[in-house]
Amino acid sequence: MDADGFAQVLADYDYELPASAVAQTPAEPRDHARLMVLAAAPARSVHARFHELGRFLEPGDLLVLNDTRVLPARLLGRRLPGGGSAEILLVRERGPGRWDALLRLPGRARPDVRVELDAGYTARLVAPGPETLWEVAIDGPGTVARLLEIAGHVPLPPYIRRPDVPADRERYQTVYARRPGAVAAPTAGLHFTPRLLAELAARGILRAALTLHVGPGTFRPVGHAELHSGELHGESYELPPAAAARINAARARGARVVAVGTTCARVLETCAAEGRRVRPGSGDTHLFLRPPRKPQVVDALITNFHLPRTSLLMLVAAFAGRERILDAYREALAAGYRFYSYGDAMLIL
Predict the structure, then answer these.
(1) Within 10 Å of residue 342's Cβ, how many Cβ atoms?
(2) Range of the domain at 85
(3) 342 lies in a domain?
(4) CATH number of the domain bearing residue 224
(5) Is 48 inside a domain boundary?
(6) Which residue among 67, 113, 121, 191 sits deepest, i.e. has the most Cβ atoms within 10 Å of its Cβ?
């Protein structure tokens, strides 16, 4: 794809967003966020609250949830000796005390640079890693898990322009988060409460869980290389056999598979098999789902409102069409919806 084609694709997924529409704090309670429902037939939008989700689902529908848990992986410190403020975001564990990390340092990053952290810990830069990451070695009086517990900060997205607070440790998690490893939340799931999940189960709406550990690439703009190759940054996933069996059983009985978030959609479409079924598996997905490609496994999608010119907005457009999604975003802005991670939600049927 040439430069003109690249620019046109990005322009096709652009929209105007006032800063005031970006949610800085979450709705309370969780399930009182607003919900825009895009119905397929007739093509119309309905405005509701998230706790009304059951109105739009049918007994036998299968919700697929991402059970990843966000690590408080943002560490603050000072470059040694006598340097300025430094920041390390741990992204992926390599082994005991060894991590791939994103760095924000005064001066040049190079091997053996040290960063003083809290509670007697230090980080030493080992070598450049994949993409823009560095391998770092963490030393201290305890484990890295202990360091994160006592000194880690929640890695809120860059468009939330406030420091994290203690409440973010749980509020920037889904209530069903189980498996630590993400640096960002699967935000569509932030709206669920135990009560809502119980109400949905009582109505005969089923659940299955998979894992995708959201990486820092989720915030990166789409580049020429991604559009040319048709692949995105890798993210680690697992679709367990039990979850795959539930999804295939739903497909066999004609029930809808409802992905809770783009992360679930990405895993399910990565694991798509013949006959709109899925195969269990694990690894790194590089799937870039965007028009004109259509989803093969997912029938409905719950999602938040995404940044312009991003792969996430393109993924959502694969479900409902670019023009319809952009029209819905304009409608949401006019109606005062709140956007992005702590914002409101959309259900595409």
Answers:
(1) 24
(2) 74-151
(3) yes
(4) 3.40.1780.10
(5) yes
(6) 191
If one counts the domains in the chain, the total is 2
Q: How far is CA 256 from CA 86, 152, 229, 315, 321, in A?
A: 48, 40, 31, 19, 19
Q: Which two tokens stand for residue 290?
A: 């965007």
* pTM (two decimals): 0.94
Residue-by-residue pLDDT tens, the chain, 349 positions: 666 676 788 889 999 999 999 999 999 999 999 999 998 777 789 999 999 999 999 999 999 999 999 999 999 999 998 889 999 999 999 999 999 999 999 999 999 999 999 999 999 999 998 878 999 999 999 999 999 999 999 999 989 999 999 999 999 999 999 999 999 999 999 999 999 999 999 999 999 999 999 988 776 778 778 887 888 888 999 999 999 999 999 999 999 999 999 999 999 999 999 999 999 999 999 999 999 999 999 999 999 999 999 999 999 999 999 999 999 999 999 999 999 999 999 999 9
Residue 156 belongs to a domain: no
Q: How far apart are CA 173 and CA 103, in angstroms?
A: 24
Q: For residue 331, tell me if it sits in a domain.
A: yes
